[in-house]
Amino acid sequence: MKKIVAIFLVVSFVAGSALASCSVITGSFEESAKEVTLISYDAFTPAEGIFDDFTAATGATVRVVTAGDTGSMVSKAILTSGNPEGDVMFGIDNTFLSRAQSGNVLLDYTPVDESDVCLNYDKAWFESRGITPPQTFEDLALPTYKGLLTAPDPVNSAPGFAFLVASIEHFGEGKWQNYWKQLKANGVRIASDWTAAYTIDFSGSSGKGKYPIVVSYGSSPAAEVLFSATPLTTAPTGVVTATCFKATEYVGVLRGSKNEELAQKLVDYLLAQKFQESMPTSLFVYPINTDAVLPDVFVKHAVRPTTSSTPSVEKIEKNRDQWIDTWRNIFL
After folding, report:
1. Are residue 159 and residue 227 in the same domain, yes or no?
2. What is the pairing mode between strands 213-217 and 189-191?
3. For residues 61 and 34, what is the distance between their CA atoms, to the nearest angstrom?
4. What percent of the chain has pLDDT over 70?
5. Could you tell me which NCBIfam families the record lists for this protein (predicted)?
6. Which residue, 90, 93, 103, 266, could crosslink 40 as a Cys pair with Cβ 3.0–4.6 Å?
7. What is the DSSP letter of 152?
8. Burial classification of residue 6, based on how many CB atoms lie within 10 Å of its CB (0-12 exposed, 13-18 middle, 19 or more buried)
9. pLDDT at residue 1 greater than cutoff 50
10. Beta partners for 215?
11. What is the spatial distance between Cα 97 and Cα 314, in angstroms, rounded to a whole number?
12. pLDDT score of 221 more than 90
């Protein structure tokens, strides 16, 4: 059965169609005042034709440029702060927010969506072997789950770093280091980013890899159902709700944008109901706009834990470098 591979087939079509309706002009900003450039992470896959209303209202096309994973995107934006490569940035999350703020990247930072980074598991893999899926962080260090987990590198991957922070919040300072040493000894695979972890390593996705546990999102089961080659009534993947981290993504006008007024109009459009309602089935995140209605597939199959780890952005920024350096030393 084809699973998440369908996402990439659909995404390729969607992205191609969406960008077909967006500007592909290669001239400078000065040469094309009616083009606004939206920078986001690689997994930004807006719904087909979603910017048509914006173009009709403003006469401006939207050019989408992707800039790697969240960490890479923010790092590039800091380097070009005040002289940006675009007009609007979408997708700085709360694990990188303070870094972007200290780098003076955006004029303002407005929440645009929410999600939960959680462990996912392949139901069929565990059922076929008569093994109970993990239920806690601690379970991952047990011999039963040796060599079963793949996680994105926390250095540049937002979900990878979110999972690291969630484990730190769970075990506490002075104890989380030993936990990651145990995970290393238990054969955790560190993938380059979320895409590699989920679509290549994970056995429950299109890549049909050898790892039945992956760091992903509480909404991933809904994606599996939506893009399944055959209709499904239940999701083929599960979520370990005790391991979740609440992520909030932000949007804003890039400082130094040459199209600041138009850029702000695009930000307003991204926060309005139509775009917000498109996000659950295109970006698989929860809208921040309370008027937005969730689609049935999201209501039925996305998992939203009652509690998630939510450390302050100040705590994250204060400890980020120390946490990353310590993690790197463990995995050297």
Report:
1. yes
2. unpaired
3. 7
4. 90
5. sfuA (TIGR01254)
6. 90
7. E
8. middle
9. no
10. 119
11. 9
12. yes
Which pLDDT does position 23 carry in this prediction?
Answer: 41
pTM, two decimals, is 0.84
My answer on whether 142 and 185 are in the same domain is: yes
Q: SS3 for 314?
A: helix
d(CA 157, CA 193): 6
pLDDT digits (tens, 9 = 90+) for 148-177: 999 999 998 889 999 999 999 999 999 999
Q: How confident is the model at residue 32 (pLDDT cuts 50, 70, 90)?
A: very low
Helix or strand holding residue 13 (H, E): helix 5-20
| Residue ranges in the chain assigned as alpha helix (H) | 5-20, 52-58, 70-79, 97-102, 123-129, 158-171, 176-185, 194-196, 220-226, 260-271, 273-278, 296-301, 313-331
Q: Where are the beta strands (DSSP E) in the chain?
A: 35-40, 61-66, 88-93, 110-122, 149-152, 189-191, 213-217, 237-253, 286-287
CA atoms of 69 and 153, how far apart (whole Å): 11
Which residues make Cβ contacts (< 8 Å) with residue 12, sequence separation at least 6?
none
The Cα 163–Cα 153 span in angstroms is: 10
Residue among 245, 220, 247 at smallest CA distance from 235: 220
Q: What is the CATH number of the domain that holds 312?
A: 3.40.190.10
Residue 55: Cβ-neighbour burial (10 angstroms; 0-12, 13-18, 19+): middle
Q: By the 8 A CB rule, do 247 and 114 touch? A: yes
- pLDDT given for residue 307 in this prediction: 85
**CA distance from start to end of the chain:** 38
